[in-house]
Amino acid sequence: MIVFVDGNIDTVDPTYVVMDIGGIGYEIKISLNTYASIKSLKTTRLHTYFHVKEDAQTLYGFHEQAEKKRFQDLISINGVGPSTGLMILSSLSPEELQSAIVNDDVNTIKGVKGIGLKTAQRIVLELKDKMKKEGILEKSIENAIIPNNTLKQEALSALTTLGISKQAGEKTVDQILKANGPDIKLEELIKLALKRA
């Protein structure tokens, strides 16, 4: 099991990062929360989860140990795979997810793209007691402003990677940019688009 990776950031995108570790490039899938934390860094440590299935081996990485824990909690639920877990953690911060679960807020979880009512109810039902025992997580994220055109392109790239059609993504991103202006942060733009697309 690969528990963490420590190295230079070669490429960073809202959905993945390429880490240079001893001259070997590792592609690691990340959430928007992790992207927000590492996008301006040159080197970092990511807490990882290595997922193996018949046709693929995928490494998932998280800047905070707490986010990795939430990911592992989510994928322990029947019907929630790693891609869905990452989608949830790209739409909600670990704190928002925990708050929604503890407060029986099924609608917040159901608001994530691809999460139906039954899955949202299962997440709340199976994780509520566990979350209550843990208490609330604490984490802050620093965000930077990205120019509008780059912002739109990066958001669309992330949305298509997450399974949204380019046409639907473009329409949604344009609406959000019109309503919020160019100062909206990339992570927030993608989160809003995931809820509307």
Note down, in words, how this protein is organized.
This protein has 197 residues and is an alpha+beta fold. It contains nine helices and five strands. It has a five-stranded mixed beta barrel with strand order 1-2-3-5-4. Strand 4 (43-53) and strand 5 (56-62) form a beta hairpin. The model is unreliable at 136-148 (pLDDT under 50).
Shape: globular
* Radius of gyration, whole Å: 16 Å
* Strand portion: 15-25%
SSE pattern: EEEHEEHHHHHHHH
Terminal CA distance: 36 Å
Helical coverage, percent range: 40-55%
Please report the total strand number as a whole number: 5
What's the arrangement of strands in the largest beta sheet? 1-2-3-5-4
**Structure classification:** alpha+beta
Low-confidence stretches: 136-148
Rounded average pLDDT: 85
Main pleated sheet: 5 strands, mixed, barrel
Number of helices: 9
In short:
By secondary structure, this protein is α+β, with helices and mostly antiparallel strands. It contains nine helices and five strands, in the order βββαββαααααααα.
List the topology elements.
Layout: E1 4-12, E2 16-21, E3 24-30, H1 32-38, E4 43-53, E5 56-62, H2 65-75, H3 82-91, H4 94-102, H5 106-110, H6 117-134, H7 148-161, H8 166-180, H9 186-196
Parallel strand pairs: 3-5
Antiparallel strand pairs: 1-2, 1-4, 2-3, 4-5
Helix pairs in contact: 1-9, 2-3, 4-6, 7-8, 7-9, 8-9
